[in-house]
Write a structure and sequence with these properties.
By secondary structure, this protein is mainly α. The protein has 6 helices and no strands. The chain has a single domain, classed as TerB-like (Orthogonal Bundle). α1 runs antiparallel to α2, α4 runs antiparallel to α5 and α4 crosses α6. The chain is globular.
Amino acid sequence: MQHLDHLKNLVIMASADGALSEREIALLVDRCSEMGLEEADLGKAVAFALSEEASLKLPKEKGEQLAMLSDLMKIMAADGKLSEVEKRLFALAAAKMHIEKDELEKLIDRLVGKSANN
């Protein structure tokens, strides 16, 4: 999956609740930099997310799918609020990628710092 498509997915999730918080923007800028993308790419991703054509482009490879879900969770939590729209979008993405419930729970546990034994 191309980095720009990954970034577009993150911006779609960040804007799903109708607003981009400062923390969400900071996380997007950081991810943009980590992926070797430029500020102009972030602008393209924001424009795409706000357009009528906005839709998630989901990776096909399992490792990329889990990385995408991990990043989506981080962006969902960035503003300290989990909106219903964000939860539904996340659930839809996980379902379309055929991610099993157990696998998703392990990913969530890893992200919140819990051990798998709890």
